[in-house]
Amino acid sequence: MKLNAVLIGLLLVCALLLVTSQHRARKAFIDLERAQSLARKQEVEWNRLQLEQTRLAKHSLIDSVARRDLKLQPVSPDRTLYLNPPAEGVAGSTLAPQLAAAQAGR
Amino acid sequence: MVRPVKHSRNALLTTKLSAWRSRFVLGMLALAFAALGLRAFWLQAWSTEFLQKQGASRYERALEIPANRGKIVDRSGAMLASSLPAKAIWADPEDVDAPREKLNELAKLLSMDRRELDRKLAEDKNYVYLKRQVDADVAARVAALNIRGINQRNEYKRHYPEGETVAHIVGFTNVEDVGQEGFELAQQQRLAGKPGARRVIKDNLGRFIEQIGSGREPQDGADLTLSIDTRIQFLAFNALRDAVREHRAKAGAVVVVDVRTGEVLALSNWPTYDPNNRGQLTGAQLRNRVITDTFEPGSTMKPFAIAMGLDAGKVKPGTVIETAPGKLTIGTATIGDAHPHGALTVEQVLQKSSNVGTVKIALQLPPQRMWEGLTSVGFGQAPQIGFPGTVSGRVRPYKNWKPIEQATMSYGHGISVSLIQMARAYTVFARDGNVIPLTMTRTDVEATGVPVFKPETAQAVRKMLEMAAGPQGTAPLAQISGYRVGGKTGTAYKQENGGYQTNKYISSFVGFAPVSKPRIVVAVMIDEPSAGKHYGGEVAAPIFARITGETLRAMRVAPDAPFATLIQPVDPVRESL
Which of B159, B165, B559 lies at the smallest CB-CB distance from A77? Predict the structure, then answer.
């Protein structure tokens, strides 16, 4: 008789533990779901921002702003000073004459 | 006063009931229990599956997990095509019940005509799309109107931030997210994701509380990295657009190829379209002329005939060829030069673009040899670049060649090629005699070429092509400051209705730079320039110069030609006083 009572008590405890652990598992799962959907949302946002960045960094946009608003001009080689390392020098073998020429030009 | 009653004497109780009645009740009860037992047994043993399904359908949900379509990016990772979630707005017309002003507002949000909306809502269906691929923020405002019968469904919308500049390469998808043109079509399998699926248990609040089984993970589509450089693409596109407008041409096309890797750095067509807004598209706008159109190239073909002559040892660069009187009769046909030149060296033949001189060299070659030469640089075969609609052009089999046909082919008539074939073929001169496969996806390895000509031959032709683009050649306008360039012009009558149209031209220029160590090949084609100029040297060469100069500077290639460096700005900044 006594043994049975103990066993019933144990059974009840186990049953309650099962219920709580199930409940906790579900809670955890809900949290996981929430986190995953947040991750998806963030990913979408990341994609959107990448697109936005590309849109803002579009060459046509930069080009028109540079030309129209900032009044910039494209690089042209006759106004560019190329500094060639002596070993590969094509336009000049050392830097000194070019720099001197540039100084004189000014 | 109560009189005691003797119960045993009660008449009612003494009534004798027959024994079968009680047994009958007992039997009925037993039968009822047996029926219950049978029913229970039936439910448990035979219809379990059906019942479990019924139960599951009340708490389980099968969910589809959408997969993202892969992005398309340029060689430096700039976004060319990317998908964002959007909503399809649909209506159940019978359910729609809203005041006029709400419907007006809805029409405005969807940028629809009110009458069009009414027409859609009058349809005799119970699922009518009002608008698809509505941006998320607009969809949120539609939802805020809270009109009964107007519903939303999740879907994706493809965005193309670079718009019309890369439209012909990237292509576009339809509303079902299936590629229709360009790489969206060619790489549909790779780009499309595989949606995942899973089953979950829902609680009374609609939350998912448990997942059943492991489900299937969604597989996002793979990203695609193209060889295109958006900077160079933009430069090429601008130059082309300006030129087509200036020359009032029907169309134009440009392709820029990296000589080391065979990557296509830019590929541009005009007319073009905006893939984000494809209201009225015409076939002309959609056409990727670089790849899908063939034309008779004209003089841009001459370097190949001359290279074959050099390679076969028939002529040397200094061999003198008599081109006077500027005419040559082969069989019954006569070919001629625009201006008679007299005696020219082989170098000068190419520099001055003499038809007679080229033909005299080409006719020394056996037809089979010439056919092999043309085929081995890629003419007559569709280039393998993994792009839809590539054409092979036309090089007829040498067995049927008549001498006049071999002659006209040497200067680019009676043969048809696409611009990309032309650009690829010119890598043979830019790369010491070997031709490389082109690719439109990014690669970091140097291409391995297939040898076609001897390196000395390629170097000799390179020198001639530099002369052709020089002050005494046909295309001095191809010159750019800072870099040595080489290239050849082409001007050809257009072929229409089986004959040549003598008032319609195709002007082209194919060249490379810098000559000392070529980095890029640029091919330009302008279709029907009609603003007075039509020679390749006047129309196409300046476009080549602009694109090549800007591209080499954008690629930071060291200049190989001397030039005077002035530090003086064009608009000097005024000194403040």
Answer: B559
